[in-house]
Amino acid sequence: MILLAKSDYDRVRPLLSDMAYHPVFAYSVIDGIQSGQVFVNNEPHPTSALIANGYGVYLFVGTGDDERFMSEAAGYLLDDRNHAQYYDLYASTPELLAAINERLAGQTVVLQRSSFAFDYAQFQHLRASLNNRHDPYVMKRVEGALFDKYQQEMDASYESLWSSSQHFTDRGFGYCLLKEDEFASVCNSMFVGGGYADIDIVTADPYQKQGLATNVGAAFIEHCLHHQLVPNYNCDAGNGRSIQLAAKLGFVKQQEYPMLWWHRDPHIMADYLQRFQYALPANEKTGT
Questions:
Q1: Beta strands in 82-170 (DSSP E)
Q2: What are the tens digits of pLDDT across the range 225-236?
Q3: What is the DSSP string of 180-199?
Q4: Which of 47, 140, 257, 288 would you label with 201, given CA atoms 20 to 30 Å apart?
């Protein structure tokens, strides 16, 4: 595989043009907003590419007929020195994903994702029904010290998404509801790129089922609308609560598509598969 120079990342953009969903994590790398690398089969005129976001989310795009590139990409994925704890692998078509999965020696599991399209008219209905008074909570934008607090208390993985609080403040955004300086619910941009912003919502356990996720999600969407960004929502196809939240926020389900997932800890993989009602592999069922 050939590692492209950052100045040449735009060469792979056409390979993403006909995808059925929006790989914002890949656009974030191409646009230079978040860290990552782009590998191609041909430097001046790539027909296949592996876009590696620094967070551990990869996109395989192209024709799939370059056997050397397919083998080298599989070798990269099979070498766990290239990954921290896990990776998510998406592809431009289900057929391409299946082709690369055949070369991964059964190390990955296939998950199903649901993609959504933002419907402005439906969001308008939500706008009309929202109560803008948040007592006893305080709505704030996530930036600066508040981003550091979120990373320390709620989700340490944001260190891999955004290099610093300043980076997040400059290129990302988020909104939260606080109660006595404690995070109740937060909606942050996980990835930003290609004119889209990926929604990531977390509500702390004591504050579940109070409609707080809807409020922070609506604030996030309002920010998108004021900054010429399209809000983007996707989730595991078995995550019923997330799918319900998407509908509340004005998103319409489009389709389901496969992805591959590998984690260094097989027990974490097994727990996830059970939680979202996937069939366990035979070796997990028998404990071998």
A1: 86-91, 109-118, 138-141
A2: 999 999 999 999
A3: TTEEEEEEEEEEEETTEEEE
A4: 257
Average confidence (pLDDT) over 215-244: 96
Q: Tokens at residue 262, please?
A: 């590998």
- Amino acid identity for residue 284 in this structure: E
Rounded distance between C-alpha atoms, residue 31 and residue 134, angstroms = 36
Q: What is the mean pLDDT of residues 115-142?
A: 91
- DSSP structure string for 17-70: TT-SS--HHHHHHHTTSS-EEEEES-SSS-SEEEEEETTSEEEEEE-S--HHHH
Average pLDDT, the chain: 93
Hey, is 3 helix, strand or coil? strand
- 25-34 pLDDT tens trace: 999 999 999 9
Amino acid identity, residue 173? F
The count of residues in the chain is: 288
